Every structure is written in structure tokens, then in C-alpha cells.
Amino acid sequence: MALSDAPLLRALAGDRPAQTPVWFMRQAGRSLPEYRELRVGTRMLDACLTPELAAEITLQPVRRHGVDAAVFFSDIVIPLRLAGVDVEIEPGRGPVFANPVRSVADVDRITAIDPASLDSTAIAEAVRLVTAELGDVPLIGFAGAPFTLAAYLVEGGPSKEHLRARAMMHADPDSWNRLAGWLAQISRAFLIAQRDAGASAVQLFDSWAGSLNPADYRAFVAPHSRAALEGIDIPKIHFGVGTGPFLADMRLDGAVDGVGVDWRQPLDEAAALLGPDTTVQGNIDPALLSAPWPVLEAHVRDVLARGRAARAHIVNLGHGVPPETDPDQLTRIVELVHSHG
Ligand code: CP3
């Protein structure tokens, strides 16, 4: 089979391949014992920037589960690290910034960094190592959407409601737009590096967009997400959690080929909102990964049935694989989806 005939890419083009494609957000990571073994003694962001390690971790779930795509092992904050921003990932917590960006002066300082100056050598090398081994299995590159990155950067670390970023939009829209516009260019540079090195598709993660109301999403966020994808001429998926109230806006006016749906919204309802020109991706409830197989199996069959309502369907979870997941449950899902026909 040619890479261009891969079920994932056919589904993104709007076809329904004989075998429905399936992959999992966070398939590369802590649910795999072989991942935990490799990561011992290496910090998360250092692992991402060590090409052999990042490539091997990316390939692990493809070998184990037989998924229809690899997703590049990296992180949404990697391009910020490459831009010289002081960021670490604290285990069990998430991205933490030494200098939160809150004032006009903070925004001036960070936006003075030229997004074109990022050294993406380690990213490109890792992507090349991965694609050389993958053959006809596509590699999905990714980046964080400007709002989700800002939710960390303005707060200085993880937060529940992203109050400071949402406040900045209204209190100082000029600073917000400068910051989000710069973040869009940072993420775009990361996407371009992955595309140029061989990624077949990309996913833009706006994981925390669900904390916004539809009007704020449209006015302050969607234009910057569109900018992050500008000129990325390979298939594009856009994903967020809790974006049901403005799901159709996640199409970014047709700029993306597929939209990821979380577990809260049945796929047939999502398909009706998204219309005939968008592939749906999702939306197995990650909570059910810990349920007995017959319970999980019935849920996956329901997701497959509802996915028929869309022009095409890529099976995935509604969000990432929880670290405590038994990886055999993921392998069983892949087998079920592939035998479904
Ligand atoms: O398998 C994959 O999906 C590819 C790799 C990937 C990672 N992060 C690896 C990772 C991807 C696509 C991401 C994106 C990412 N990073 C997002 C968007 C996706 C989402 O889940 O909504 C976000 C919000 C981040 C920021 C981030 N990085 C968080 C919240 C955490 C978890 C912190 C923790 O320990 O709970 C990270 C760390 C991270 N990124 C891990 C992995 C495998 C865990 C690191 C470890 O093994 O300790």
C-alpha cells in the first residue's frame, strides 16, 4: 500500500476506507511499560529533544497496538523551549514557566523573539528517523493552539479555569492579540518543521478551549488558530475538550479536514453540527478504558455506529490515554475497529 492510500489519510480526504482508522491521543506515554523504562532518568522535554529517544517512543505504540497512525512524541511547549523560553514539565503537574507573561512589558519581551529563529534540528531529525521506519503508516505532527499555550504561559503553569488568559482578552485585548498572534507563529514554525521532515498530517490541540464562551472563542481565539495553520498544506485535524457549544467553529471556516470530538457529545450529533465537509475524530470515553472489556466493547460499537453519520470517521478517544490504562485494552479496541468493516 502507498502511504497516500493509508486509511487515516483517506478518511481525512472524506473517503470511508474498508478499514476505519484508529489511533489514540497520548498513545505514546505512560500507559506503556516500555515507555516508562526508556524515560527513567531523562526529563520530559530532554527526551523530546533527543532524536533517537523521541523516535523510539513514537514507534512503540505503533508496534504494540497496530494503530493506523503514529503521533510524534513531543510536547506543545517544545517550540517555546526552542525559542529560549524557560519552561519545564513537572511530572504529574504539567508545563511550568519561570516567567509568566502577564504585563504589557512581559508581552513586549516575549514577542521580541523571532519565531523564524527556532532551531528545529532535533525535531526534524526525530521525524526523519520515525518516518524512515513507519513505511506506509502516517505520522501525525502536532502543535498547541495559541489559547491552550497562553492558558499555561499567562498563568505560569496548569490551572483549572485559565482565568488570567481569559481576563487578558477583555482587559487588554491589544496585548492578548499580540501574544496569541506570536504563539500562532511559534506553533506554525513547529508544524512546518514536522511537515518538512515527513509528517503526513497535523493535529492542532486546543485542549482548554472549552473554558471559553462561543463569542470569545470566535472573537479572540479562532483567528489565531487559523493563523497557526496558515499554509500548512497537509491534512489538518483540530481538537479541543468541552468545545460542544461552538463545535462548528472548530472547522475554522473549512481550514481543517477533521475535527476531534470529546466524550461528552455523541458523534451523530457532532456530525450534524459539523456538516458534510468535515471528518469526525473520536470519541471513546477515556473513563471506560478501565471498565471490563464487554462494557468497553459495547461503547466502542456505539461510537462506530454513531460515526456513520459523518462523511468519514477516525476512531480515537475523547481525550488522552490515562496513564493507569491497561495497554491491552487499547490493543483490543484496535482489533475490534479493524474487524468491524
Ligand atoms: O502520544 C501522544 O499523544 C504524543 C505526545 C504528546 C505529549 N504531549 C507527550 C507528553 C502530545 C500530543 C502532547 C500534547 C500536549 N501537551 C497537550 C495537548 C494534548 C492534551 O492532552 O490535551 C497538552 C495540554 C500538553 C501539556 C502537558 N504535557 C501536560 C498537561 C502534561 C502532563 C503532565 C503530567 O505528568 O500529568 C505533559 C507532559 C507529557 N506530554 C507527558 C507525555 C507523554 C507525560 C510526561 C511523563 O511521562 O512524565
TrEMBL record:
Site described as Transition state stabilizer, positions?
D75
Look up the EC number in the record and give it: 4.1.1.37
Where, by residue number, does substrate bind? R26, Q27, A28, G29, R30, D75, Y152, S207, H319
The UniProt keyword set, sorted, is: Cytoplasm, Decarboxylase, Lyase, Porphyrin biosynthesis
Pathway of action: Porphyrin-containing compound metabolism; protoporphyrin-IX biosynthesis; coproporphyrinogen-III from 5-aminolevulinate: step 4/4
Superkingdom field: Bacteria
Domain Uroporphyrinogen decarboxylase (URO-D), residue spans: 21-30, 140-156
Enzyme kind, highest EC tier: lyase
Single GO molecular function: uroporphyrinogen decarboxylase activity
Tell me where in or outside the cell this protein is found: Cytoplasm
Q: Which reaction does it catalyse?
A: uroporphyrinogen III + 4 H(+) = coproporphyrinogen III + 4 CO2
Q: What does this protein do?
A: Catalyzes the decarboxylation of four acetate groups of uroporphyrinogen-III to yield coproporphyrinogen-III.
Q: Which family does it belong to?
A: Belongs to the uroporphyrinogen decarboxylase family.
Its quaternary organisation is: Homodimer.
Read off the HAMAP family from this record. URO_D (MF_00218)
Question: What name does the UniProt record give this protein?
Answer: Uroporphyrinogen decarboxylase
